[in-house]
Specification:
heterotrimer; A alpha+beta (143); B alpha+beta (226); C alpha/beta (189); B: 226 residues; Arc Repressor Mutant, subunit A; six-stranded antiparallel β-sheet; two-stranded antiparallel sheet; 6 helices; C: alpha/beta; Rossmann fold; Roadblock/LC7 domain-containing protein (chain A); P-loop_NTPase (chain C); hydrolase activity (chain C); GTP-binding (chain C); Gliding_Motility_GTPase (chain C)
């Protein structure tokens, strides 16, 4: 049986490097995590006290719900999700070709455009570094 | 004692060595058919009990009950036995510790047999073991998924799950007729899924408002065609 | 608008999504993701937010069926959905390890519903004959709360007829319990 992604040291290493790079690109990043589609924390970088495993579960729920909305409205899978609040913006999106989600919290002064483009760039760079996911691991959401 | 089986029965009977004897008749209770079975089963008492019973239904294969396992075996689905057989002979035997099962286990859940027998065998009359003035309350839900049932049965069981009721009170609470309520109580007491109480208080229900909508149960029942 | 929320809960792989599909009039909204824990439960996917189905009773009257994820790491979804729920169908597999204890632990997380009498337990795969069997679940529940008679039925979540019996039993139990006046009862003559 393949090792679960969240326990794969290569993925964890590459992921950590990607998230660290993202924090350099956008110093407004408070928290950034990579998580599996089913809510396991793979790796995270944090400048705040956050329960990583709980955040990973919640992010996966949000990702799945947003995909369900896209399916219901027949507008395709969710490309990104933004949650805005007074004290920060959460942006999350999938790593292309992987059953992995990138979720990050940015300070409120950061523009949404910058935050989103930084997250996208990070996701694309990480996608190029990771081997193609096994087809079994990329089971499509079952609507 | 040699078993006599309907066509298709195994040639070797597990119970051929069991010393069955006619079940004792209850004093002052003249019953026949399935009612005789019900009285004999009720007399066995709470289960598990170290008793096995053989029911010889005229022109049908015998039904075996093993009260140690709360199970029975019948060669036909229980619904294919006659609802009012010409005669049923009841034989039983007391088993010793370690005696083998009289049919391959797990057998069928005894509730299935007792539900069918108990609901019909006394008609609209109370079962002979019931005492006037008693109220009844569930101590265990029967597994309705495995019992032939109507929604009225479930509604009555739900009432009994939450308070003690007599047959009249049960019919009123569940919105059913008294005959169904009595039959259900007969069956449930035979199955020993209710406890009886002579001292339980009259259940008090919140009066329904005149403008109250029909219950969700009723609306869903209509929608699902149940 | 009258809505009646029924939750479907239980461990991963118990058949919650399947049960909702058996009952729902609409195509069920699922939120499945690839399962990273195939060694725990050998399923390709798992629910990570909720399943949603419904039964329409009238213009403004629906029964909403919500399935929650089975894993404890999604218990925030349990908290969100149980606030709105009238009742809950708990599904367990009889052949799962420690099935009875698992049921007890899950009921602990849905204690409010349990204590209001708004729970029915559906046990699947009893026909395999390898699990503790129905009586063990009832006995465990009785030991915990002798005053609550919780329905425990065998069930195949794929079977619409069986799931309807389970749903109707739950509703009947909730409504009958609600009919009873609290506290003072008349003294028996």
């Amino acid at each position: 049986m393949n090792q679960p992604i969240h326990q794969d040291q290569f993925v964890i290493g590459e992921g950590h490097a990607a998230l660290s790079g993202m924090c350099e690109l956008a110093p407004s990043t408070i928290y950034a995590a990579l998580l599996t589609d089913d809510g396991f924390d793979i790796v995270h970088v944090s400048r705040t006290q956050t329960e990583a495993s709980r955040f990973a579960s919640m992010s996966s729920s949000i990702q799945a719900l947003s995909d369900a909305v896209g399916h219901e409205l027949r507008i395709g899978d969710s490309e990104y999700v933004i949650m805005g609040s007074a004290q920060g913006h959460v942006i999350q999106l999938r790593i292309p070709g992987q059953p992995i989600v990138l979720a990050a919290l940015f300070q409120p002064h950061e523009t949404l455009g910058k935050a989103l483009s930084t997250a996208r760039l990070t996701a694309e760079r990480l996608a190029q570094r990771l081997p193609a996911a096994a087809s079994a691991a990329m089971a499509a959401p079952n609507f | 004692m040699t078993a006599t089986w309907a066509q298709g029965a195994p040639t070797e009977s597990r119970y051929s060595g069991v010393g069955f004897e006619p079940a004792a008749e209850a004093a002052g209770v003249a019953v026949s058919g399935w009612a005789r079975v019900a009285v004999a089963v009720h007399a066995v008492g709470p289960t598990p009990a170290p008793v096995v019973m053989r029911l010889d239904v005229a022109s049908y294969a015998p039904i075996l009950i093993d009260f140690r396992e709360r199970a029975f075996e019948a060669k036909l689905p229980i619904g294919q036995y006659p609802s009012a057989p010409d005669s049923v002979l009841v034989h039983q035997a007391t088993m010793a510790e370690g005696d083998a099962a009289v049919f391959p286990l797990p057998g069928a859940d005894l509730d299935k047999l007792l539900w069918r027998v108990g609901f019909t065998c006394f008609g609209d009359a109370p079962a002979p073991w019931l005492i006037p003035g008693e109220r009844y309350k569930l101590n265990r839900w029967p597994n309705f998924v495995e019992l032939t049932h109507h929604m009225d049965h479930i509604r009555m069981a739900a009432a009994l799950a939450n308070a003690h009721y007599s047959a009249d009170e049960l019919a009123a609470a569940a919105g059913t007729d008294r005959s169904s309520a009595q039959r259900l109580i007969n069956a449930f007491t035979l199955m020993r899924v209710v406890e009886a109480s002579a001292v339980a208080a009259v259940p008090v229900t919140v009066p329904a408002r005149a403008d109250a909508p029909r219950s969700l149960f009723r609306r869903l029942r209509e929608k699902l065609g149940m | 608008m009258a809505e009646h929320v029924i939750l479907f809960a239980g461990p991963m792989g118990a058949g919650k999504t399947t049960a909702i599909r058996s009952l729902s009039e609409i195509e069920v909204v699922s939120t499945e993701a690839a399962n990273s824990e195939r060694h725990v439960v050998d399923k390709a996917t798992t629910t990570v937010a909720l399943d949603y189905g419904e039964i329409t009773l009238g213009d403004d009257d629906k029964v909403r069926l919500y399935g929650v994820p089975g894993q404890k790491r999604f218990d925030f979804m349990w908290a969100i959905l149980k606030k709105r729920a009238r009742g809950m169908i708990m599904l367990v597999n009889d052949d799962a390890p420690d099935a009875v204890q698992t049921m007890i632990e899950y009921l602990d997380d849905f204690r409010d519903l349990y204590e209001r009498g708004g729970v029915i337990v559906g046990v699947s795969r009893t026909d395999l004959g390898v699990g503790p069997g129905l009586a063990a679940y009832s006995a465990a529940l009785q030991a915990q709360r002798p005053d609550l008679i919780v329905p425990v039925f065998t069930v195949d979540p794929r079977d619409a007829g069986q799931m309807r019996t389970v749903l109707m039993t739950l509703i009947a139990n909730i409504e009958m319990r609600a009919m009873l006046a609290p506290a003072a009862e008349a003294v028996a003559p």
